[in-house]
Structure formats: structure tokens, C-alpha cells
UniProtKB/TrEMBL annotation:
Pfam families: SlyX (PF04102). It comes from the Bacteria. This is Protein SlyX homolog. It comes from Methylocystis echinoides. InterPro entries: SlyX. PANTHER family: PROTEIN SLYX.
């Protein structure tokens, strides 16, 4: 293996670049995940609201349905 001082320096530079890139990628992924969680929370609230709305109109479904227009 070639352990010359210049070779070690270039390996360290390469590792530092890799870590910097990974740190940036992790930060970007964290932003995406945070954004998705916010959207999920909004959607969960909407689903809850729609469930409640459907439960409130549930008893009215006992009424007979009107015949289709082609009759």
C-alpha cells in the first residue's frame, strides 16, 4: 500500500468531501420528511373531519332512493 504523505492527504480530502456530501443529503432528506409529516397531519385531520361528516349524514340514508332518471 502506498502511504506517502501526499496520498494520505488526498484520501483525507476525499473522505471530507464524502462526509460533506452525506451531511447535505441528510439535511435535505430531513426537510423532505418534515414536509411529508406536515402533509400527513393535515390529511389525517381531513379524514377525521370527513368521517364525522359521514356519520352525521348516516341516518338520512334510510330514506328510499329516487329512481334513476331513465325510468
Amino acid at each position: 500500500m502506498n502511504d506517502q504523505p501526499g496520498n494520505q492527504s488526498s484520501r483525507l480530502d476525499l473522505l471530507e468531501e464524502l462526509i460533506t456530501h452525506q451531511d447535505r443529503t441528510i439535511a435535505e432528506l430531513n426537510e423532505v420528511i418534515t414536509s411529508h409529516w406536515r402533509k400527513i397531519e393535515v390529511l389525517e385531520k381531513e379524514v377525521t373531519r370527513l368521517r364525522e361528516e359521514l356519520q352525521n349524514i348516516g341516518p338520512a340514508r334510510d330514506a328510499p332512493e329516487a329512481p334513476p332518471p331513465h325510468y
